C-alpha cells in the first residue's frame, strides 16, 4: 500500500459517481426490453458457466472507467468486466465497480439489475452509488454521512424478530433449491442482483438478505456502505466486516440485515454450509 494520498472531497466524488452511473445506465437501457428478452444487438454470450456477458456490460464498463479514472487518475481500479491489474493493491484509493450486476435479469427484461460503484479508501468504502436505470432509483451513501434514495434519507427497517422477517433471496439460488429450508421461516422474495438487494435492505423495504454462494467485492462493496449508513450491518458468515481491495476479491458469503436481526441471523446460519463454488 502506498503512503496515504491527499484527502478527497467525497461529495464531489459522489456527484461524479452518480453522473457516470447515469450515463452508463443510458448505455444499458439502449438494449433493454421490459418484459422481453434482449435482441441480437445486445450480443449475449457466456464468459463462464451460467455467467452471461452482453455488449451493454462492456459499454457500461468502458464508460465508467473513462469517467471515473479521468476525474480521479490516482485511484486504482477493480471491475468485474476489466482484466484485473495487481497494481491496484498499491493504491490508497480504489474504484470498485460492477458495471451491471444482474445481467441475467437484464437479458430477460426483468428490472432487477443495477450499476454499482464504490470508492474505497484504505480497504473501506467511503462513497457509494447503486443505480437501477430500469426503475430510476439512485441509492447513494457517504461514510458517516448517511444514505439516500433519490436525495431522500434512508433508514433500515426496525424489525426485531427473525421469525417472519422479510428476506430477499437470489433468484438463481432459489431455483437451485438452496433456500428450501428457509421458505417457511421468513417472507422470502426472490430477486436478481445482490447490489440491488442490498440497496433495498438499506431502504427499509426488506429486513435482510444473504448469500452463501461465493461473491466478488464488486458485487457488494457499494451496498455494504449503503446498508451500514442506513443503520444496518453487512458481514462475513462469521460476523466480521469486510476488507476491500484485497488480492483475492472473492468471498464465500455475504450477510446483510437491518442490524437488529444480525446476531440472530448469524446464529441461524452457523451450521448451514457454504454453497458450492460453481465457478
Describe this structure in words.
This protein has 279 residues and is of the alpha+beta class. The protein folds into 2 domains: 10-151, 2-Layer Sandwich (Fructose-1,6-Bisphosphatase, Chain A, domain 1); 166-269, D-Maltodextrin-Binding Protein, domain 2 (3-Layer(aba) Sandwich), CATH 3.40.190.80. It is 28% helix and 26% strand. The protein is built from 7 helices and 16 strands. The strands form 4 sheets. The protein has a 7-stranded mixed sheet with strand order 3-4-5-6-7-8-9, with helices on both faces. Strands 11-10-12-16-14 form a 5-stranded mixed sheet, with helices on both faces. It has a two-stranded antiparallel ribbon with strand order 1-2. A hairpin with a 2-residue loop joins β8 and β9 (152-153). α1 packs antiparallel against α2 (55-71) and α5 runs parallel beside α6 (217-229). The longest helix is centred in the first third of the chain and has 20 residues, at 10-29. It is globular. It starts with 9 loop residues before the first helix and ends in a 10-residue tail after the last helix. The mean pLDDT is 95.
Q: Which helices and strands occur, and which strands form pairs?
A:
Blueprint: H1 10-29, E1 45-48, E2 51-53, H2 55-71, E3 76-79, E4 93-101, H3 103-108, E5 114-121, E6 124-132, E7 137-142, E8 147-149, E9 152-153, E10 166-170, H4 171-176, E11 187-191, H5 194-202, E12 208-211, E13 215-216, H6 217-229, E14 233-235, E15 250-251, E16 254-257, H7 262-269
